[in-house]
Amino acid sequence: MRILLIANASASSVTARTRVVIQKALSADHDVELAETARRGHATRIAKGAAAAGVDVVAVLGGDGTLNEAANGVAGSATALAPLPGGSTNVFARTLGLPDDPVHATAVTLEALDAGSVRSVGLGSANGRYFLFHTGVGYDAAVVEQVEKRGQLKRWAGHPLFAFAAIDTWLRHYDRSTPHFEVEFADGSVLDDGYFGICLNTDPYTYLADRPFRVAPAATLDRPLSFLTLRSMSATRLATLAARTLRSDAGVQTGRGVDVRSDLMKVIVRSERPFPYQLDGDHLGDVTEIEFLWEPDVLQLVVPDGRDVPRPGPIL
Questions:
Q1: Domains of the chain by start residue, with CATH
Q2: For residue 308, what pLDDT band results from cuts at 50, 70 and 90?
Q3: Which residues, 6+ apart, have CB-to-CB distance to 161 below 8 Å?
Q4: Furthest C-alpha separation in the chain
Q5: What predicted TM-score, i.e. pTM, was given to this entire model?
């Protein structure tokens, strides 16, 4: 089997020794080449070239951002994607049930390849770019922007930095007095007072250390998208929702100041003034409109053989 290993050397858990160990493990029974990313967007170009060349699997050693780029390179092709966690949070790899240690995750991935455990799964898209687990609109994108301004700290203090940035952004960097966008659904209904939105392709939304934020359990790789809209930015509401998503697997329910909908094929978020958004943990700037679509069966994904994955479905 031909495997291209894409490595992001700047990811928090990626070291020269880790790359060597993983490449040797993959090479024991497969034809493996290594490509290292040099800049933002590089993984997409590398992965697209691999798919065009008929490579069987693109394995990605890096964080969620690098994995997203590679997914956009291989989506729609016969080349499968294999995540190997190398970032600070590794949301998608952990959602699949992979160990957080990249060497251990490589062993699990090799077992999956031996068993032929590859599934065709659906992805969300935001203005034409695919996302694996979620896209955040408004407040959390502003938080990610503040984190990325402290990029060197992220490698060493990932979760504490995000916690600090969340508080700092709420206090100093985000307008909490005026709604930022409206959300239009395919049935014609519109919410015109959105402050913070999350479009989810999988659940959980993210992790705090080992604890998942379970926002929308209905979001799985085999079902259309879920969308959460916060219609208030009060500290009490945010704290209550955060505590609920950490304590319970039931997720967030529609209620005062919050709207949650599932099985959505299309959602449009728009505003007259630009709002920030982030996609799979990468801040992508400000826009005035995002069209979210669910794209079924667009990605071939290597999944841990025999493990509990977020969507039950047939192994191909």
A1: 2-116 (3.40.50.10330), 129-296 (2.60.200.40)
A2: very low
A3: 147, 150, 153, 154
A4: 59
A5: 0.91
